[in-house]
Design a protein that fits this description.
The structure holds two protein chains of two kinds. By secondary structure, chain A is an alpha+beta fold. Chain A is built from three helices and five strands; from the N terminus they run E-H-H-E-E-H-E-E. Chain A starts with 15 loop residues before the first strand and ends with a strand. The chains are: A alpha+beta, B alpha/beta. Chains A and B meet through strand 1, helix 1, helix 2 and helix 3 of A and helix 1, helix 3 and helix 4 of B.
Chain lengths: 143, 129
């Protein structure tokens, strides 16, 4: 099949776990600051680091709003930075949100969060089922 | 995760300063607009339109953070404005706020000078004042 190849987030075996935490609505901003601090000075450009933090915030917000009100976050760093956000909500059909190439129409109904996360990281994968959702994002160190 | 009450309060901090110069309502935001604070902004903008204001400018120069929920609230308020022949525009976004607006295309929708139903009437009304 022609067209863009799916971008995949690699396994994190061998990456160093630098942050593991849980969160609900009241902690999203605080955890976001912790992630921002943890990805500092790892060789990412300011733009790449900012984009990664934006993506993590959006995915945490989704977990709070659609994933049962809370979630867990793990962050690995080994040059590249990888973040995994999991919730125990009812899940959703993830396929329409993966590897999108066309920007969705921005509306007051929302639905822009995963588009933002995809656009501000190097890759994003989503596993979702009736027992929960896991979103994984990676931004690679250049070179 | 352990979060103190003070930290929680700071996270929720969104400043909304409303300035009415007669022709235009200027809403200056500061701090952070996210899932904790978005309802407050939505209520504030809705109230302004209910009170009869038609030209709303949201100044984001001092806003440090805005997520997709904040953008959705701004789009919703802009729709309410348009329905009554008014207009809501956004100015001054910088940093991560400008970034999410650009990535979603919301910057084009809410930019001052962009089209939209009611723009002609609103501008004409402003000139009369």
């Amino acid at each position: 099949v022609d067209g863009p190849q799916p971008r995949r987030v690699p396994a994190v075996d061998g990456y160093r776990l630098v942050l593991t935490t849980s969160f609900a609505a009241a902690q999203v901003a605080t955890v976001r600051r912790q992630v921002a601090h943890a990805v500092e000075d790892r060789g990412l450009s300011d733009d790449a680091a900012e984009g990664f933090v934006i993506a993590v915030h959006e995915v945490m917000t989704n977990a709070v709003r659609h994933g049962g009100g809370s979630g867990r976050l793990r962050l690995w760093a080994d040059g590249d930075v990888v973040c995994e956000v999991s919730d125990e909500g009812g899940g959703f059909v993830a396929m329409p949100y993966v590897d999108r190439v066309e920007r969705p129409q921005a509306t007051s109904a929302g639905g822009m969060g995963l588009w933002i996360a995809q656009q501000t990281t190097d890759a994003m994968t989503i596993e979702s089922g009736s027992s929960g959702t896991t979103v994984r994002m990676i931004t690679r160190r250049p070179g | 995760v352990s979060v103190s009450g003070a930290e929680r309060q700071r996270d929720a901090d969104l400043g909304i300063d409303v300035d009415d110069d007669g022709a235009l309502i200027r809403v200056a935001l500061s701090g952070e607009l996210d899932l904790i604070s978005v309802d407050r902004l939505r209520d504030c903008l809705g109230d302004l339109v209910t009170q009869g204001h038609r030209l709303v400018e949201v100044d984001m120069r001092r806003l440090a953070w805005c997520d997709s929920l904040g953008l959705a609230a701004l789009l919703g308020a802009a729709e309410i404005c348009r329905e009554v022949g008014g207009r809501l525009t956004v100015t001054g976004a910088t940093g991560p706020v400008a970034r999410v607006m650009m990535v979603t295309g919301v910057d084009e929708i809410l930019r001052s000078g962009s089209g939209g139903a009611g723009e002609g009437e609103a501008v004409a009304g402003q000139k009369l004042l």
